[in-house]
């Protein structure tokens, strides 16, 4: 009984209210087989949690919370389940959060410093990724899985 209670509390806390330390407006493009979005997004984040509020024509259409779980308006799921359903089962569990925050992916594999940022090219039998992070833009494209993320700062 004790373990069931702890498990329930863990899952409930994943979608609970967070205190975010940073917030910013972004222009966000997401293209996958199951997710398509191109418009304004408001991003809030703390050390281990991110919240994206997606807007179309000024209306909030979706909220995405990323912490231990990934929560959409419809409910929460494990990061690996989110990847399988919306991205690619071949991605590491942390990839969505790392892309949104402009952090390295795949344990810094093929990391290359470029002007005002970094770049990673990751190719294997399952992925063909170009990932670039600069001061004002995050660009992630996986040719094999037909996935695109483009995040630009709004000034």
Question: What does this molecule look like?
Answer:
With 155 residues, this protein is an alpha+beta fold. The protein has a single domain, classed as outer membrane lipoprotein receptor (LolB), chain A (Clam). The chain is 18% helix and 48% strand. The protein is built from three helices and eleven strands. It has helices at residues 2-14, 79-86, 95-101, and strands spanning 22-31, 36-45, 50-56, 59-66, 69-72, 75-78, 111-114, 117-123, 128-134, 137-142, 147-153. It has an eleven-stranded antiparallel beta sheet. A hairpin with a 2-residue loop joins strand 4 and strand 5 (69-72). The longest helix has 13 residues, at 2-14. The chain is globular.
List low-pLDDT spans.
none
CATH superfamily: Lipoprotein localisation LolA/LolB/LppX
Number of helices: 3
In percent terms, what proportion of residues is strand? over 45%
For the largest beta sheet, what order do the strands appear in spatially?
6-5-4-3-2-1-11-10-9-8-7
Order of secondary-structure elements: HEEEEEEHHEEEEE
Number of domains: 1
**What structural class should be given to the helix and strand makeup?**
alpha+beta
Supply the CATH class: Mainly Beta
Secondary structure: helix percent? 10-25%
Rg (CA only): 16 Å
How many beta strands in the DSSP annotation? 11
């Amino acid at each position: 009984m004790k373990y069931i209670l702890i498990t329930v509390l863990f899952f409930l806390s994943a979608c609970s209210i967070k205190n975010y330390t940073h917030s910013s407006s972004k222009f966000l493009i997401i293209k996958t087989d199951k997710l398509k979005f191109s418009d304004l997004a408001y991003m809030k984040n703390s050390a281990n949690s991110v919240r994206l509020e997606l807007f179309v024509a000024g209306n909030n259409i979706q909220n995405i919370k990323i912490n231990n779980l990934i929560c959409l308006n419809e409910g929460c799921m494990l990061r690996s389940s989110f990847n399988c359903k919306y991205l690619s089962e071949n991605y590491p569990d942390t990839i969505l959060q790392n892309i949104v925050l402009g952090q390295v992916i795949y344990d810094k594999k093929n990391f290359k410093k470029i002007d005002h940022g970094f770049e990673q090219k990751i190719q294997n039998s399952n992925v063909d990724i170009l990932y670039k992070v600069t001061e004002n833009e995050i660009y992630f494209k996986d040719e094999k899985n037909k996935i695109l993320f483009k995040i630009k700062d709004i000034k």
